[in-house]
What we know:
Elements: H1 15-31, H2 34-41, H3 45-59, E1 64-67, E2 70-73, H4 75-102, E3 107-113, H5 115-120, H6 122-132, E4 136-142, H7 145-153, E5 159-162, E6 171-185, H8 187-190, H9 199-203, E7 206-210, H10 215-226, E8 232-237, H11 240-248, E9 254-257, H12 258-267, E10 271-273, E11 282-290, H13 297-309, H14 319-326
Helix pairs in contact: 1-2, 1-3, 1-4, 2-3
Amino acid sequence: MSYNNNRRTGQEGALGVVLSHLKTFVRIVDAGSLTRAAEQLSLTQPAVTKQLAALEEEFQTTLLIRQGRRMRLTATGEVLYHYAKRIQSLAEQAYEAVAEVERPGQGEIDVGAVSTVAVFSLPKVLAIFTRNFPRLRIRVHIGDIQTTLDGIIRQELAVGLVTVPIIHPQVDSIPLFQDTVRLVVNPDRARKLPSQISLEELAHMDFISYQTPSRFRAFMDGMLEQHGIIPHVLMEFNSHDLVKSMVKVGLGVAFVPDSVVAEDLANGTLTAIEVPELPPLARTTSLILSKDPPRTGGLMALLATFFDHYQVEPRLWPGWYWETRAEESALPWSAPRSTARHPSTHS
């Protein structure tokens, strides 16, 4: 198949029409039918059909075929769908960037996060950010690590927050903090135990655990097995709150990230017990973003807030971040400046 280059003549001014047709195409695929797409777009079905036909004429190929009650992508439709999603995302970012110049300090930023970080760590940072930039709106998308990474690669998310190391050629990964893992028990039970217990004592305890598949569960099971312990799991849950609730009523013990139980330990509803024979347990929470993101003032402000809050060493900052900060004076508004110096100036 060859793209019909002749159709491009004189159509550069019709970019909005092409974007509109691509948006309709994406909505048809996501909705699964012309009827539902028309309803969601507040258009008539003939109008949606006409836009799809125009797009197929433009690319001289069939993009969708009917399969029962649903529309199915052809091979060429599959290719265009992925490009259309990217184009739609880039177009939205372009409008945001232009609007930011017209309306300094306003706009939207999409943040992806795994549930642990979204619930227990992110709110503190967003509270600081919102106080400093009340006209910038944050949209948080909670998903698993792969979903968050995919959103960064497709540039549908400005930043992502994950709990495992990420190595990817298109992604920068900046460690924010170490989340210590605690063994927690019911306070009444803790009073009957020493502040430190042995591996042998741990092996005879009932565990409240996270459901599989869970990266944290796999991490903890692997660590315990290395020390000869196959935990006796009494109950499994896919919720931090349920794990904590079962421990609080005395049904078992649990290994839980410190960020999840910090308030419970502070107010005495849970007690931490040490196991000296185990090595220090922690997992790293990292911020991930594209190596070449749209460098808007909003993103700069959000990164500055994260880096300042978690005291991220400047040597870990992305190189482009330094370059953009150096040009901040040309922006109509700027992110709060850190007192940190460029890593090249450090002795």
